[in-house]
C-alpha cells in the first residue's frame, strides 16, 4: 500500500496522478483536516504533524509514503526520511526547474503558501535550478482554504487571483509554478487568466513517475482506496466528485472512511 498525505484536499491532485500511473496500487490518503491550512503555521508544528502522520501510515501497512504537500516537504521531509527508517519517502517541491528550463522570457513566478515561500528549501531550489532566471516567489494566503471550502466560483476570489497574477504577466513572466498542491484545483480560474501569455507548471505527473520508480511491490494491489482524515472524513469523500475526481472513488474496490488519530 502507498500512503499519500496533505493538510487537506490539495494532495488529491497528486493522489489522482499516482492512481493513473499505478492503477492496481492500494492507496491510503490522509487529509489532516483538523489542522488545515499548514501554510500559516510554524515549522515546528508542521514537522510534528508530518512525523505523526508518516508514522501512522507506516503503522497501517504503507510501504511507501508520499508527502503530497509542498509546505510539509519544505518543513520536514528530511526528518521524516530519518524517522521512517528505510521506508521510501517521496516529497513534492515546486517545479522551479522545469519552469526555468522552459521559460522563454527567463521570468518565472512561484505561487506558494507563506511557509513554503519563506523556506530555505525553496531558496535552495531557486539557487540550484534557476540561476539565470528571475524568480518571483508569491505567497498566496487563503488560497488553500478556498479550495478546502470548495468555494471556487466566487467573484471576489477570482478578482483577488486576477490581481495577484496581473503584475506578474505585465512584467513578462511566462511560467507560473503551482507551488502548493491545492492550487491544481485553481487551474479553472488561473488558466483563462494566463491564456496566451504564460503556462502553469504543476509537478503532480512528475511525482507520480517518481512514485512508479520507487514503488516496487507497493505499486501492486487490488486498487483499493482508503480515505483517512483527522476531522470530517465524510467531507473528503464528498469532495472527490466536486473536484472532478469522481472516477477516483469509482476506480476503487473499497473506500473506507476512518477518522485517524490526531497527532
Ligand atoms: N497543499 C499544501 C502545499 O502543497 C499546503 C496547503 C496548506 O495547508 O496551507 O503546500
Derived from helix and strand composition plus strand pairing, the structural class reads alpha/beta
Helix content: 40-55%
The secondary-structure element order is: EHEHEHEHEHHEHHEHEHEHHE
> Taking all residues together, what is the mean pLDDT?
94
The shape, in one word, is globular
Number of distinct helices: 12
CATH class of the largest domain: Alpha Beta
Biggest sheet details: 6 strands, parallel
How many beta strands in the DSSP annotation? 10
List keywords for this structure.
263 residues, alpha/beta, Rossmann fold, 2 domains, 6-stranded parallel beta sheet, 4-stranded parallel beta sheet, globular, binds D-glutamic acid
Q: What does it look like?
A:
The chain is α/β, with parallel strands linked by helices and 263 residues long. It has two domains: 2-92 and 205-257, Rossmann fold (3-Layer(aba) Sandwich), CATH 3.40.50; 96-202, 3-Layer(aba) Sandwich (Rossmann fold), CATH 3.40.50. Helix content is 46%, strand content 17%. It has twelve helices and ten strands. It has helices at 12-21, 43-59, 70-83, 96-102, 114-117, 120-129, 143-148, 155-170, 187-194, 204-215, 233-242, 246-251; strands at residues 2-6, 27-31, 64-67, 89-90, 107-112, 134-139, 175-178, 199-201, 225-229, 255-259. The strands form two sheets. Strands 4-3-1-2-9-10 form a six-stranded parallel beta sheet, with helices on both faces. Strands 6-5-7-8 form a four-stranded parallel beta sheet, with helices on both faces. Helix 3 links the parallel strand 3 (64-67) and strand 4. The relative contact order is 0.20. The mean pLDDT is 94. Bound molecules: D-glutamic acid (DGL). D-glutamic acid (DGL) is lined by residues 6-7, 10, 36-39, 69-71, 113, 116, 144, 180-182.
Amino acid at each position: 500500500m502507498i500512503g499519500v498525505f496533505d493538510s487537506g484536499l490539495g494532495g488529491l491532485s497528486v493522489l489522482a496522478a499516482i492512481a493513473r500511473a499505478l492503477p492496481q496500487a492500494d492507496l491510503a490518503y490522509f487529509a489532516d483536516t483538523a489542522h488545515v491550512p499548514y501554510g500559516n503555521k510554524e515549522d515546528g508544528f508542521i514537522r510534528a504533524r508530518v512525523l505523526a502522520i508518516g508514522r501512522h501510515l507506516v503503522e497501517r501497512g504503507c510501504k511507501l509514503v508520499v508527502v503530497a504537500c509542498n509546505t510539509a516537504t519544505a518543513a520536514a521531509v528530511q526528518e521524516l526520511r530519518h524517522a521512517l527508517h528505510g521506508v521510501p519517502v517521496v516529497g513534492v517541491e515546486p517545479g522551479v526547474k522545469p519552469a526555468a528550463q522552459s521559460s522563454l522570457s527567463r521570468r518565472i513566478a512561484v505561487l506558494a503558501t507563506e511557509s513554503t515561500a519563506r523556506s530555505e528549501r525553496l531558496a535552495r531550489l531557486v539557487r540550484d535550478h534557476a540561476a539565470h532566471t528571475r524568480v518571483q516567489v508569491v505567497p498566496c494566503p487563503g488560497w488553500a482554504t478556498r479550495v478546502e471550502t470548495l468555494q471556487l466560483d466566487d467573484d471576489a476570489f477570482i478578482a483577488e487571483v486576477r490581481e495577484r497574477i496581473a503584475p506578474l504577466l505585465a512584467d513578462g513572466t511566462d511560467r507560473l509554478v503551482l507551488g502548493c498542491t491545492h492550487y491544481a484545483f485553481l487551474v479553472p480560474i488561473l488558466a483563462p487568466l494566463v491564456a496566451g501569455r504564460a503556462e502553469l507548471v504543476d509537478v503532480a505527473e512528475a511525482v507520480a513517475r517518481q512514485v512508479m520508480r520507487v514503488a516496487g511491490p507497493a505499486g501492486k494491489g487490488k486498487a483499493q482506496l482508503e480515505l483517512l482524515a483527522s476531522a470530517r472524513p465524510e467531507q473528503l469523500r464528498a469532495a472527490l466528485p466536486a473536484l472532478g475526481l469522481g472516477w477516483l472513488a469509482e476506480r476503487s474496490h473499497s473506500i473506507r472512511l476512518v477518522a485517524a488519530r490526531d497527532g
